[in-house]
Amino acid sequence: MVDLKADTAVFTSLESEVRSYCRAWPTVFTRAQGSHMYDEGGRAFLDFFVGAGTLNYGHNNPVLKRALIEYLTGDGITHSLDMFTGAKRSFLQAFEEFVLRPRGLDHKVMFPGPSGTNAVEAALKLARKVTGREAVVSFTNAFHGMSLGAMSVSGSGARRKNPGIPRLPSYHMPFDTQGTDEEPDFRWFTRLLEDKGSGFPHPAAVIVETVQGEGGINVARPEWLRALDRICKRHDMLLIVDDIQMGCGRTGTFFSFEEAGIVPDIVTLSKSLSGYGLPLAVTLLRPELDVWEPGEHNGTFRGPNPAFVTATAALHAYWADAQLEKQIFARGEQTEEALRRICRSTKGEGTSMRGRGLVWGLAFDSPERADAVRTRCFERGLVIETAGPRDEVVKLLPPLTCTADELDWGLDLITRAVTDTA
């Protein structure tokens, strides 16, 4: 059990009350490497949070760090707006070689700004520009960011709060309810689209997460996604896949939608794209949708060259072959089996599990129980968060590069926490 007596006075006295994650993990972290973080007292914490999915390759990954240090010590360009740079060229070439071309994708790459919500805003703006329509359809329990447009298509009530400002036109449909119909959950949607008297405006686009992270690790089935893709094509709506948290290998393949065999019109990526925790986001769009005028969507931080450098290194190191994908699937099976054991041991206590690849959720009937498990894990040296509409799901996001032993250790800590809080 770790001793948690950290000096946090300056944070509680000076930092805004909007801070959140630090409330669950009340210590001061000073360094990190691989799957671990260390606080100023030298205590080690296994990290199953990894920056909310931003550090898929672990902390201070040595391959990425070496590339970054060499670039910085060589006085490489740091900031460049959208000017041409060698670092950007290398990233684009590697992204095409290792990601787009092997998957038969010809999408153009747009740099909308540093964060995921920038990528979402660009996607929504482009969909409205291309179609000339305003409405966008999203899903229950979705989360797409904290800027105005992104909040408008998020399903969480808490995330959608924005007092005094009207939200943009959006409509929410049920996320995959795991039904058995060929086109589950879409009968009402289709009726609204086809009935001229429904009063339902023709949407410009549909935006979806194939696995809802903040929503509670809700996994859309491949057939559900294929049905959604068909409806979008049938009714001339653009399909936007938000892969900000689930992309870059989190579900096993680089893009989370690959399993379903669909090709979205627009894809948003961020979080682990740089691989090193440096801000980098892209909006991918089919070539025929690239109707932007020069400078029509702008921003100061669209040329983050250090992030281009680490992203390029990550692509070469982890996506030039299938080794990482194989490891993710193996670690995913290891995680699934451990969570099944936990669920069997708590039979009748409202515990269930769900996930794909290396993103998993352990759901409890009581959010208080989930919070207690998270707290107990932290006390024992494991950083893990909760998710879901009531924060009732313990969310597992271990590094994709973690060892089997590290994963076993973390899963054992979760098992013990569940037992302790029964």
TrEMBL record:
Principal EC category: transferase
InterPro entries per UniProt: Aminotrans_3, Aminotrans_3_PPA_site, Dat, Ectoine_EctB, PyrdxlP-dep_Trfase, PyrdxlP-dep_Trfase_major, PyrdxlP-dep_Trfase_small
CDD domains: OAT_like
Transferase is among the record's keywords: yes
Pfam family, one: Aminotran_3
Cofactors: pyridoxal 5'-phosphate
tRNA-binding is among the record's keywords: no
Keyword annotations: Aminotransferase, Pyridoxal phosphate, Transferase
GO annotation, biological process: ectoine biosynthetic process
Entry EC no(s): 2.6.1.76
Pathway(s) served: Amine and polyamine biosynthesis; ectoine biosynthesis; L-ectoine from L-aspartate 4-semialdehyde: step 1/3
GO terms assigned for molecular function: diaminobutyrate-2-oxoglutarate transaminase activity; diaminobutyrate-pyruvate transaminase activity; pyridoxal phosphate binding
Similarity comment: Belongs to the class-III pyridoxal-phosphate-dependent aminotransferase family.
UniProt xrefs under PANTHER family: DIAMINOBUTYRATE--2-OXOGLUTARATE AMINOTRANSFERASE, DIAMINOBUTYRATE--2-OXOGLUTARATE TRANSAMINASE
Protein name per Swiss-Prot or TrEMBL: Diaminobutyrate--2-oxoglutarate transaminase
Gene that encodes the chain: ectB
